Amino acid sequence: MNAISPQLIFTALISVATMALVPVLVSSVSANEVTIGIVRVFIACAALTPLLLWRKNFSGLKRRDWLALLIIGMVFGLHWWTYFYAIKNSTPSLGALSLTTYGIHLVWINALIHRQRPKLIDLIAILLCFWGCIIVVPSTDMTNHITQAFLVGVFSGFLYALLPFFHQRVNHLSTTVRSWGQFSFAGVFFLFFWPQTDWQLSYIDWQLLLVLGIVSTLIAHTLWVKVSTELPSILVSAFYYLYIPIAMALSYFFLNEVMTVAKLLGATLIVLSCLLGIILPALRQAKTN
Predict the structure, then answer these.
(1) CA separation (Å) from 204 to 30, 35, 129, 211?
(2) Alpha-carbon torsion 154, 273, 114, 112, what sign?
(3) Given a cut of 90, is residue 110 above it in pLDDT?
(4) What is the signed CA dihedral for 28, 29, 35, 37, rounded to 10 degrees?
(5) Measured distance CA(270)–CA(96) in Å, rounded
(6) In this structure, which long-range contacts are made by residues 28-33, counting pairs with CB atoms below 8 Å and at least 24 apart in sequence?
(7) 252 near 259, Cβ under 8 Å?
(8) Which of 135, 152, 141, 147 is nearest to 270 (CA)?
(9) Is the dihedral of CA 17, 23, 29, 33 positive or negative?
(10) Which pLDDT belongs to residue 284?
(11) Band of residue 271 on the pLDDT scale cut at 50, 70, 90
């Protein structure tokens, strides 16, 4: 097993910290989900496209590469839309928590791809995650709009868990090319919903959108594409869960979101479930190698 460079570890930390800004920024800006998505992908593509054209990175792409980038972009676009919806219609911390079920999705998707039978620890992790989700939502009534938004966020976590597997299939392409494909084809996804955009935004809204586009999109996701491709999935998930305490702290200090005992307990169970399902099996395997 190759040694993991400190630079890659530092890259993972920076990526997670900048992505943790997203729930607070999305909740604060008055723009809707489609408008936010279009602005973010436009900024990312405006920065990446000239660079790729200058380097002539597109000339070597084959048909199957374009198809893979299209799939990545469409999945990513749907992931973004559902995630923004979850944040807008619940709270920043609940939106972040719903997305972090990503780790449990990663466990069962990985098991399905490699045709592995689920172990006892996997079942325990899934039950803990399920219980944590029940605790954090305000009601188990499916007609409750916050509960509905949280479930949409869980689906967003599933989509997000698919992305590393898609990226690994085209890891012969550079990080910049894959990031460009992810953003540009996500932009195509959002263009289908153009009639829903709302551009009656304040100066503060535009400032927040710029931060979302530059810091939490262009920088954060480009770094995360590199990290999720080059780091083992065990470490990818472990680093990702720093997202929760950072996002919840930002929401508490900047948006005065109330952190109830139930919310903190549910968050702990969700994070613990994902760590149990991913970290412990990997450590056990490392000892046997």
Answers:
(1) 9, 15, 37, 11
(2) negative
(3) no
(4) -50
(5) 11
(6) 28/208, 28/254, 28/255, 29/201, 29/205, 29/208, 29/209, 29/212, 30/201, 30/202, 30/205, 31/198, 31/201, 31/205, 31/209, 32/88, 32/196, 32/197, 32/198, 33/80, 33/81, 33/84, 33/85, 33/88
(7) yes
(8) 135
(9) positive
(10) 58
(11) confident
The contacts of residue 155 (CB under 8 Å, 6+ apart) are: 82
pTM of the model: 0.84
Q: Which two tokens stand for residue 142?
A: 């499916």
Closest CA to 23 of 258, 263, 216: 216
What is the C-alpha separation between 9 and 108, in angstroms, rounded? 25
Task: Count other C-beta atoms under 10 Å from residue 242's C-beta.
Answer: 17
What are the C-alpha distances in Å from 207 to residues 40, 189, 247? 12, 24, 20
Quickly state the pLDDT bin for 234 (edges 50, 70, 90): low
Burial environment of residue 74 by CB neighbours within 10 A (0 to 12, 13 to 18, 19 or more): middle
Q: Identify whether the C-beta of residue 184 lies closer than 8 Å to the C-beta of residue 41.
A: yes
Cα 267–23–282 angle (5° rounding)? Answer: 45
pLDDT in tens, 53-93: 998 888 888 999 999 999 999 999 999 999 999 999 999 99
Alpha-carbon span 82 to 151, nearest angstrom: 10
Buried b (16+ CB within 10 A) or exposed e, 92-121: bbbbbbbbbbbbbbbbbebeeeeeeeeeee
Nearest CA among 212, 235, 218, 233 for reference residue 179 = 218
Q: Which residue has the tokens 């702290």?
A: 249
CB contact at 8 A, 19 and 243: yes
